[in-house]
Amino acid sequence: MVEIFLDQTRNDARGKDLAAAAERAGVRLMRVPTKRLDGFYGGGRHQGVVARVTVKSLGETLDEVLQGIEKPLLLVLDGVTDPHNLGACLRVANAAARMPSSRRRTAPPASRPPYRRSASGAAESTPYLMVTNLARTLDELKEREVWIVGAEERAPQTLYEAISRR
Q: CA of 78: how far to CAs of 43, 51, 101, 134, in Å?
């Protein structure tokens, strides 16, 4: 993280906690007027705080995303068009997996800010790879001996139960 901009009128407990955490981490914190925050975030809702971060590459190819992972757990998406749902998927993947997605019928991550907000930080720390042909990518994963499991809301067992039986 490069720096944090905090609304100068924000003096609540969370604002104070954020300021203290920034100080402990050695991150520059600037108290600024709300209008300045609005300019950073394109007029969207920012909750009184905006962070400027450096973006690091998390992998641009399947090889890079899988590099160094002995037993990969991937969340593969197709047809997730709502940026809020994409953000929620990023949070899930951040907790448990990496995330390839089809280029077609899926909201690209840079398309709209809501996905980043919905992801609550996971967008900056979860490898997200958009592929041209999802079926071919799944075949390539199978060739690499990555186990492919489909999800269904009425499944008799959870994903983790299915994995533990492997």
A: 30, 30, 6, 8
Query: Domain containing 122 — which CATH number?
Result: 3.40.1280.10
- For residues 66 and 117, membership in a common domain is answered with yes
Q: Are strands 28-32 and 99-102 parallel, antiparallel or unpaired?
A: unpaired
Q: How many angstroms separate the CA atoms of 124 and 147, rounded?
A: 26
Q: How far apart are CA 59 and CA 13, in angstroms?
A: 37
The one-letter amino acid code at 159 reads L
CB contact at 8 A, 113 and 47: no
In a domain, 57, yes or no: no
Cα-flanking dihedrals φ and ψ of residue 14, to 5°? -65, -40
36-46 pLDDT tens trace = 888 876 656 77
- What pLDDT does 41 receive? 62
Q: Find the distance separating the first CA and the last CA of the chain, reported in whole Å.
A: 39
pTM above 0.90, yes or no: no
Q: Are both 28 and 77 inside the same structural domain?
A: no
Residues of the domain holding 92: 62-164
Helix or strand (DSSP H, E) at 141: helix 134-143
pLDDT in tens, 95-113: 665 555 555 556 555 544 5
User: Is the CB of residue 84 less than 8 Å from the CB of residue 123?
Assistant: no
